């Protein structure tokens, strides 16, 4: 892993320029991963000009909010200095042709990867509005196999409206992906949602849209299950109040990944964060409250750290849907994470989807409701 530097600063070009000038003087090979909140998106062109003038490599993304220690903030900028800057790439226009999108990303990895990159982690930052991320990831794996580990997050607006959210020194794009090839990176991705009893089949899907469940309109089945299992009367008016607390579980061979409903259509289709393959087996989940959650403990154990082994910073991406569910307790969860991992500070952003590799298998998968830590 490259040497890492961290600076949270005002998002003005002058403030960002001061940070990179200081870093560049001591570390001429430094590059920057820049995290911006949605409210600062107008600063990107001027910040890019600063990086071009300094000839410092840049890759960045816009998220709903940043994580600064124990809080979510909507202003400022996180600069993560990487010395030396690892290989990166930026692709746009990941259209509906999934095989072509997967092939483009795999080829970008081959073109940028170091010849000695045997322990690289491919860290991908997707635009959250790309509807076929799960299939794209599987296509990348079929091409590259386990020559890299897979990790990553989704960027963009919490409203899931299209926006230009990925950038480097020259370009600002949407409907794309930014990639970093980070050597020797230990990444942990956990949600620790309990598995529910009910099982059903998504008999008709389209990308991240569930049209039919058990051959019936998805909304009708979802409404009946929530009423039967949890006593909640779901209507079109209160859908957004309850859906984040009762997500779907996509049952996989080795685990269950969360799919949070974020919208519905008049014909009864339900739109989720993340793709649902046709004929998938689904379960209905109930998101745990903080007191019953084991997520922080699972992350701490997986990282192999504790309060007696302090670390300078823990880079953390926290699912926006998880924050909506936990509300004020999401701050408490950040506090617990910082304490139990021994991190002096948390550095990161609110994410709109998370990527991990299946342990022991290496196949990438796409999650909701998770934390990504490294």
Question: Can you walk me through this structure?
Answer:
This protein is of the alpha+beta class and 374 residues long. Helices cover 26% and strands 33% of the residues. It has 9 helices and 26 strands. It has helices spanning 13-26, 44-54, 98-112, 133-144, 218-230, 239-242, 295-303, 320-326, 329-341, and strands at 3-9, 31-37, 58-63, 66-68, 71-73, 77-83, 88-91, 120-127, 149-155, 166-168, 172-173, 177-183, 188-190, 200-206, 209-213, 216-217, 248-251, 256-259, 261-264, 270-272, 280-284, 314-319, 346-351, 354-357, 364-367, 371-373. The strands form 4 sheets. Strands 14, 15, 16, 17, 18, 19, 20 and 21 form an 8-stranded antiparallel β-sheet that branches. A 6-stranded mixed β-sheet has the order 1-6-2-3-10-11, covered by helices on one side. Helix 2 links the parallel strand 2 (31-37) and strand 3. Helix 3 packs across helix 4 (133-144) and helix 7 packs parallel to helix 9 (329-341). The model has no long low-confidence stretch (mean pLDDT 93).
């Amino acid at each position: 892993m490259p040497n890492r530097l961290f600076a949270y600063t005002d998002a003005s070009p002058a403030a960002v320029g001061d940070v990179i000038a200081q870093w560049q003087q001591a570390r001429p090979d430094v590059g920057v991963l820049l995290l911006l909140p949605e409210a600062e998106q107008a600063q990107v062109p001027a910040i890019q000009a600063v990086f071009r003038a300094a000839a410092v490599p840049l890759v960045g993304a816009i998220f709903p909010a940043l994580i600064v220690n124990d809080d979510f903030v909507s202003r400022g900028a996180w600069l993560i200095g990487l010395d030396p800057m690892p290989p990166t790439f930026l692709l746009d226009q990941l259209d509906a042709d999934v095989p072509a999108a997967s092939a483009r990303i795999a080829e970008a990895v081959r073109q940028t990867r170091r010849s000695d990159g045997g322990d690289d982690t491919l860290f991908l930052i997707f635009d959250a509005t790309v509807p076929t991320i799960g299939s794209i990831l599987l296509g990348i794996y079929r091409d590259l196999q386990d020559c890299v580990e897979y990790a990553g997050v989704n960027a963009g607006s919490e409203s899931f409206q299209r926006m230009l959210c990925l950038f480097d020194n020259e370009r600002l794009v949407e409907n794309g992906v930014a990639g970093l090839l980070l050597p020797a990176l230990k990444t942990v991705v956990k949600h620790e949602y309990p598995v529910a009893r009910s099982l059903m089949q998504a008999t008709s899907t389209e990308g991240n849209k569930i049209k039919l469940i058990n051959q019936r309109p998805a909304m009708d089945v979802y409404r009946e299950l929530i009423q039967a299992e949890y006593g909640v009367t779901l209507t079109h008016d209160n859908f957004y109040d309850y859906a984040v607390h009762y997500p779907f579980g996509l049952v996989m061979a080795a685990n269950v990944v969360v799919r949070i409903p974020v919208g519905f259509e008049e014909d009864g289709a339900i739109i989720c964060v993340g793709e649902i393959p046709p004929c998938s087996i689904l379960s209905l989940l109930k998101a745990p409250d903080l007191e019953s959650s084991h997520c922080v403990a699972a992350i701490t154990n997986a990282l192999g750290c504790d309060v007696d082994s302090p670390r300078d910073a823990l880079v953390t991406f926290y699912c926006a849907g998880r924050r909506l569910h936990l509300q004020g307790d999401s701050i408490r969860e950040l506090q617990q994470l910082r304490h139990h991992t021994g991190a002096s500070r948390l550095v990161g952003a609110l994410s709109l989807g998370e990527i991990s590799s299946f342990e022991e298998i290496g196949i990438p998968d796409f999650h909701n409701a998770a934390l990504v830590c490294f």
